[in-house]
Amino acid sequence: xxxxxxxxxxxxxxxxxxxxxxxxxxxxxxxxxxxxxxxxxxxxxxxxxxxxxxxxxxxxxxxxxxxxxxxxxxxxxxxxxxxxxxx
Length: 87
Prior knowledge:
- The chain is of the alpha/beta class.
- It has a domain at 1-6 and 37-87.
- 26% of the residues lie in helices and 23% in strands.
- The chain contains two helices and three strands.
- Helix 1 (44-56) links the parallel strand 2 (30-37) and strand 3.
- The model has no long low-confidence stretch (mean pLDDT 85).
């Protein structure tokens, strides 16, 4: 079974992150994370923290930041997901 993950503007939940709460091995599972900046719902710092945790858990993470774009999904992101995750 091949594992793949596609995320749009995601961050880890909680006021303060404790890296000890996250364990496991993604075994180089491809993960695409996209976000706008600024995003009023998910700050860029929280997205970057999530990417760091996923990389430490051995995920193959690709982060795409869209400057000046708010909390939405674009056609470009869908194309990127098809290219990196679903191809």
